[in-house]
């Protein structure tokens, strides 16, 4: 491998940082340029809605690598820079000043952006969203800084909305969560565990408005579709995220709810890979195309993408994994059970005591996914059950006296 080869990484999050690390760990000795739109070195995003909102971690604590690391490993980091275009024929990327940068291999790690609401008042001064460290700082200030508030309205009962709600309640802020579905996390977990999280938030004093739509956001809160109102000093919009695929789409890459990649994370262009939130992967273990917006993909996919960029054979076959911390509940979820995929949920333990493991089974009683709540060191066993593909005895699975 010659030093003239130039690999360009477009994106400034954890996936981009880990890809640079993986390339050097695989003895790539050519040029690496990392181009990030934010002004900060790449950092992890889960703490933005978790530890940072509780004042337990600062940006330095979850920055992926120091400036010294990038310098010592000869990674040219260009912050505050947004790539304007990709010319696949010329193998160049266009920078904001109109100049171009050539590449031998290109990695897209452009992440996702919060979905916005097309509502009157959605851009008001009292409205927040959460994606960047600046967003998290602004929300934290609402909980105990100079801008401290007494009431927060959250639009959306997904992971971000519920984690921010939990942080707000821990700070003594009154919280109302408005969700258009009949339960929180319905698309992610289904009704069985959606009900668990609904009760968790109600038990902690959250006013949960379900099956509810928002018609307007004002200076004093929300007006709902049924004509009722929610008084609030600030509003958080947390209605999901959309993958940042505009750059890839304009370059003619295949896009469908993400950038389409194969098992090796390569796009249809053999010189371009995609990782993290934007990667809609043909998953070799799940035998379907999935796109997962979670930290584990940003952490683990780059090792495979680096080998692909280097011309080696590699597949990303890890099961999806994510976690959350809300109030006294710590949860890990492993596997993939989309709505309509599973036949039933088997619970091992006591949800009332918030200590249990839930399993999603298909019609043949094969485990598709598992979620452990305040039960630890079982993730590897859950993976084994999923990967075996064998039917389980559902009664034994629910029996806490039987070995998992």
Structural notes for this entry:
The chain is an alpha/beta fold and 404 residues long. The chain folds into three domains: 177 residues, FAD/NAD(P)-binding domain; 122 residues, 3-Layer(bba) Sandwich (FAD/NAD(P)-binding domain); 71 residues, Enolase-like, domain 1 (2-Layer Sandwich), CATH 3.30.390. It has ten helices and 26 strands. The strands form seven sheets. A five-stranded parallel β-sheet has the order 3-2-1-7-19. Strands 9-16-10-11-12 form a five-stranded parallel β-sheet, covered by helices on one side. A five-stranded antiparallel β-sheet has the order 22-23-26-25-24. Strand 25 and strand 26 form a beta hairpin. The longest helix is centred in the middle third of the chain and has 18 residues. The chain starts with 5 loop residues before the first strand and ends in a 6-residue tail after the last helix. 41% of the residues are buried.
Architecture blueprint of SSEs:
Blueprint: E1 6-10, H1 14-25, E2 31-35, H2 46-49, H3 67-72, E3 75-78, E4 85-87, E5 92-94, E6 100-102, E7 105-108, E8 112-114, E9 127-128, H4 133-144, E10 151-155, H5 159-170, E11 174-178, H6 186-203, E12 207-209, E13 214-218, E14 221-224, E15 229-231, E16 234-237, E17 241-243, H7 246-250, E18 259-261, E19 272-274, E20 279-283, E21 288-290, H8 295-309, E22 321-326, E23 329-335, E24 344-350, E25 355-361, E26 367-373, H9 379-388, H10 394-398
Parallel strand pairs: 1-2, 1-7, 2-3, 7-19, 9-16, 10-11, 10-16, 11-12, 18-20
Antiparallel strand pairs: 4-5, 5-6, 8-17, 13-14, 14-15, 20-21, 22-23, 23-26, 24-25, 25-26
């Amino acid at each position: 491998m010659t030093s003239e080869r130039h690999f360009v990484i477009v994106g400034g999050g954890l996936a981009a940082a880990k890809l640079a690390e993986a390339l050097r760990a695989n003895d790539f000795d050519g040029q690496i340029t990392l181009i990030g739109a934010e002004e900060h070195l790449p950092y992890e995003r889960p703490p933005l809605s978790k530890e940072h909102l509780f004042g337990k971690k600062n940006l330095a604590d979850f920055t992926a690598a120091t400036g010294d690391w990038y310098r010592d490993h000869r990674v040219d980091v260009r912050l505050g820079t947004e790539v304007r275009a990709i010319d696949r024929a010329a193998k160049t990327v266009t920078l904001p000043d109109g100049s171009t940068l050539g590449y031998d291999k290109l990695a897209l790690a452009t992440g996702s952006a919060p979905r916005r609401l097309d509502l009157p008042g959605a851009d008001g001064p009292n409205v927040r969203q959460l994606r960047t460290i600046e967003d998290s700082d602004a929300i934290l200030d609402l909980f105990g800084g100079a801008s401290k508030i007494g009431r927060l309205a959250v639009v959306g009962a997904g992971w971000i909305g519920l984690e921010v709600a939990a942080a707000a309640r821990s700070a003594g802020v009154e919280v109302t969560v408005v969700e258009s579905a009949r339960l929180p996390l319905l698309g992610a977990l289904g009704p069985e565990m959606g009900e668990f999280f609904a009760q968790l938030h109600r038990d902690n004093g959250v006013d949960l408005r379900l099956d509810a739509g928002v018609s307007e956001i004002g200076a004093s809160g929300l007006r709902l579709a049924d004509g009722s109102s929610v008084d609030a000093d600030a509003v958080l919009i947390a209605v999901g995220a959309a993958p940042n695929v505009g750059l890839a789409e304009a370059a003619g890459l295949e896009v469908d709810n993400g950038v389409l990649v194969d098992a090796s994370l390569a796009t249809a262009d053999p010189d371009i890979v995609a990782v993290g939130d934007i990667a809609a992967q043909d998953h070799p273990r799940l035998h379907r195309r999935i796109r997962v917006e979670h930290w584990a993909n940003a952490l683990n996919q780059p090792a495979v993408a680096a080998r692909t960029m280097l011309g080696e054979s590699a597949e990303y076959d890890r099961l999806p994994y994510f976690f959350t911390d809300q109030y006294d509940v710590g949860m890990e979820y492993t596997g993939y059970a989309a709505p309509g995929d599973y036949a039933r949920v088997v619970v091992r333990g006591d949800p009332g005591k918030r200590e249990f493991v839930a399993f999603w089974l298909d019609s043949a009683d094969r485990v598709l996914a598992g979620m452990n709540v305040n039960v630890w060191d079982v993730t590897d066993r859950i993976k084994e059950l999923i990967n075996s593909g064998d039917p389980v005895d559902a009664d034994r699975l629910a029996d806490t006296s039987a070995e998992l």
